Amino acid sequence: MTASATVIELAGVTKRFSGRPPLLEGVDLRLEKGEIFGLIGPAACGKSLLCKLMCGLVPADAGRVVVEGVEITGARERTLFGVRQKIGMLFQNNALFDFMTIAENVAFPLVRRGDLQTDEIDARVYDRLKAVGLAGSEKKTPNELSGGMRKRAAIARATIAEPDIVIYDEPTAGLDPVTTSKIYDLLGELQAKRGGLVFAISSDVEALRRWVRRIGMLYRGQLRYDGDPAAIADSSDPVVRQFVRGDLEGPL
Ligand SMILES: Nc1ncnc2c1ncn2[C@@H]1O[C@H](COP(=O)(O)OP(=O)(O)O)[C@@H](O)[C@H]1O
Ligand SMILES: [Mg+2]
Q1: How many whole angstroms from 172 Cα to the centroid of ligand 1?
Q2: Residue 185's CATH number
Q3: Is 191's pLDDT higher than 70?
């Protein structure tokens, strides 16, 4: 791979909140164009935090975060705005606006960008809602939808501006296994069309592992594994092995 294919680079990234051990301690990670990367790790180990660092929503204490060649550590708000335009983010709790319709929610990133006419935005929203299986739900509010439908709406919003990078934080949290499979199918379809970098986090290790091409495990501030999803259950690291297999016996 050439250096120019690197989309996100983390080097020595460290982050702690006062009075507690560091959540990230010298994390190095290089993500290339077109990759589908999955991140797993115990609850509260800092997975969502890592996403927020990559979008510049939370500053690192030390180390570098570079997104498409732009150093975002300590960058000004204007620079960060430009970087965030390249990233579509599905938040763990969807973060849909309750007071807006589904169509308005999905249109939000395009409206904010400010370079498209209303007709064009409406057309794109209509297409995107159709693509995620939500045609006809335009005028509903998030509260009127099921959990799976809300996720679809949030996925539509994360991807509508065709960002180079899409981050999915727990795309299937709280969904049943069939809905989970359907969501992963949808993410796969969207990615096949677009081909950008995908960074996905999930507590559902099995489902995530089937979808991604590369997987990482975060534990006590370090990436304990970074590699082949098929081989992770046989990792030589007992912490990784136990976590992935869900064994009762072991170091965890
Ligand atoms: N802005 C913040 N201030 C203080 N603590 C935080 C902040 N953001 C996250 N944390 C804490 O960091 C830990 C890791 O959070 P998170 O990244 O959400 O974990 P997860 O791996 O489950 O996604 C949690 O204990 C959380 O409470
Ligand atoms: Mg999280």
Answers
A1: 19
A2: 3.40.50.300
A3: yes
